[in-house]
Please model this.
Amino acid sequence: MKLTRIFLIALFMLILTTASFAAPVVIRFWHIYDAGIAKQTIDQLVADFNKSYEGKIQVEALGISFWDYWDKLRISTAAGQEPDVFVNDLGNVGMRASSGILLDLAPYLKKAGIDANKTFFKAPLDMCRWKAGIYALPFETDIRLLFYNKDLFVKAGLDPNRPPKTWNELWQYADKITKKDSKGDYEVLGFNPLYAQSYFWMYVWGNGGDFLGEDGNLVVNSPIVVKSLTEWKQMVDRLSLEKIQKFNATYPLGLNDAFINKKLGMVIQNNTFFSQLRDYAPDLNYGAVQIPYPVKPVSWSNGISIEASSRSRYKDAAAEFVIYLTNKTSAHLFAKNVTALVGNKEAASSPDLISNEMWKLSVQTLDISQFRPFVLEYSLWYEDLEKTVESVLYGKATPKKALDDLQKMLETQIQKYRLTH
Amino acid sequence: MPKKPKSSFWKRKSLTGYLFATPWIIGLVCFIIGPIFASFFLSFTTYDGINPPKLIGFMNYKILFTLDPSFWKALGNTFYYMFGSVFLKVLLGLIFAVLLNNAGKFMGIFRTIFFLPVVLPAIPVMFLWMMLFNPSSGLLNQFLGVFGINGPLWLNSPTWSKPAFILMSLWGIGGIIVIFLAGLQGISTELYEAAELDGANKIQLFWKITVPMLRPVIFFNIVTGLIGASQVFTEAYVMTGGGPLESTTFVNLMIYKLAFKDIQMGYASAISVVMFMILVPLTVLLFRIYRKQAEF
Amino acid sequence: MRSQKKMKLIREIILYTVLTLFSIIFLIPLFWMISTSLKQEAQVMIVPIQWFPKSPQWRNYIDAVKAFPFFRYFWNTSFLAILNVVGTLFSASLVAYSFSKLRWKGRNQLFYITIATMFIPSQVLIIPTYLLFSKLGWVNTYLPLVVPAFCGGGAFNIFLLRQFFVSIPDELLEAARIDGASEFRIYSQIMLPLSKPVLFTVSIFTLLFSWNDFFGPLLYLHDPTKWTLAVGLRSFQQQYTTTWSLLMAASTLTALPLIIMYFVFQRNITSGFALSGSGK
Model:
């Protein structure tokens, strides 16, 4: 009697201890895919992972909408409560890597026998490097293209199969498409340089310029940038800034997008616009080509990285999950379902995807596309560039003066960083 | 020994007093006095929320005063809004309160209507005004269009964005009307009657009796109004994001962006301290001016 | 005499015209909100304006509620508001009682400090308070939005209650004291029942403030399931920037409880507001 009791207790203890040993490691994963097919795909990927690691690793995923996500992630990081794994901005991985918050994934990649150079597209992968390490993996990247409305082309007497190749052509076409109402407001615009994904830095690159000096320092007031800004202002002035803004306020992006509502002949958008057009305007007769250029063909890329926190209690599990999310199978599923340009080269180039013309165009465009240069001391420098461009468009300063001022300001910011770090 | 019981009684009583005040003493120390000192401390550090704060002396202040024009712009924006909205609110609030005070038995209805926007939740109200301010289809420009006026771009214009915010804040003028109205009803009618007998007209009555009698209330509302308006944040965060051309980047939005977007907690604290050093003396000064005037 | 009567009549006509005109101006935005919430999206931005929706789209309300977790946010907001009201009523009245009816060393000094805090620009408190809560591990919980209410509920409410308590004669309390009642008993059995109107005012203000609070939830709540209506609506707007009809439907639903409350308790609210703004 006594023996059985002891035995039972021992058995119970044994079960208890094995159960506690076998309790899976729980890691938290935050992402921006909180709705629609993207959410379903991520949920499925997480479920598959949890299934294959049952008893070992359990991932708790939390989707927060794109607009709220960034602040939430940054604020919780500052509170020391960031999740183990999170998606983030591919454009400034170095900033976080330098602060010591990110886990170096290079050793884990090595252990898993993955050659990052072969697996991922070069430009996005380069954004993940910091010193000798790899502190993130590229989940999604993107490119910008020129979308044009074929019906509006025909209406304006243009050949719908001959999209513009240069900015001069673009404006010639645009002028034929543009229509004004009695008050002088735009009813239909041929092209709007301040709409959607049309950014000044792409125009600078197209002019053959860039934002880095010979010594690798940030230079925003080189003659080519000044010239580009002068031309940029001329383009806006032709249409009148006020009228453009009125147009933009009438057609905010999304459902009321001007291109979707056939009020805009040509628009620069990123590749996710394909799926928006599919969903919101299935009957729209459009084409897409690489962005016209004055000197050299370019596009702009940015993207979403997946990162693991260096403060995570379960670094191995976190790294495991990061690698899983960016492997060929996962990336392929995500690319197929969401039509997002995944950073995994092997997945993006798989035959079933590349057979789609538009997909092929996107992947090809990646070759000519570039990222904004990353500046550790002031990673948000381009926001100030945008503000400067805005002030020039408002006529507050000449391009030369405004860019000179900006250069001084950026140097100050860089100095400020150095003074406080 | 007749004194002993009394002193212990008072001791006990004193203890109860402290006990009852304990929640507030904790709150005061943890959420007000402590944070003020902490802000001063943080303003001498650089702190990214990840690595521990590092003391850097007056560097943040040096940068703030010599290298960062955007702070002065934000400060200018904030003062523009503070004084614009408070001045108009107090002036118009006073006028409407006087009008309502003369409205007899209909006063209640008008008061109900004017006060209604005050209880509406802030975020929906902002969405609503974003619609009203739309340059082409918004109600405001449509209305101006009736008179052949080509309305401005409002929130999309660097010149009109702050006036737009002030205009929106005037929709909430009902609060101040109600306060002034209560003050007006406390003024005895005999004063007016006596002055009227002396041949004073309505406008003279307003300046000679109404305003002086309401002076404490007016003053109190100016001071609290200014401090309240100096914290303008949500409007800019939700409606403009600080633009266009930084015309609606107010100090609090700047602090929020610096502290919780760029995670420069030290620098953001320095800005909050400077703001503190501007507003507290301003409040004290206003009190002094008021006291001096009240003496006459 | 007659001309004076005429003058008075003219003056009254002008007065009522002006007031009516402005009343209409004040009501138009609200009307516009409701009108837009019942329109088809295509009619919203139309020029010239449609004052009344052609065929009221009641469906918009169903769609809006489905498009984001409205009821969850509604519950969260109510939950926070109730906790704030309870916390403030309890702690602010306790403290106010101490400030008005108990005598202790340093009482008056502390009261002056309390009044002074009403004039402190709160931006100086944001960062350290955030760091405090994050060190406590309270970020992404409701604690940062609730605990301060239980710690006195803010200088303003204490001040308001204290002024009221002072006006209640001490004799009422002394009688109970002689009978040997404890202070807490006197506070809860005598003071609070006598102070119902001012307690009501404090409740309404706390409720309004909590319902409208945007900055607190924005800063402290990360998990979307914990959000309140204010931040939830903001997120909804970001995602559906241009679906004005749905946004206005959701906005109307958010405003509705407050509008109802206003019409039910109108007298208390306006008089409470007047009292609070008089600075006495």
Residues 2-142+302-370 of chain A form a domain with the D-Maltodextrin-Binding Protein; domain 2 fold (CATH 3.40.190.10).
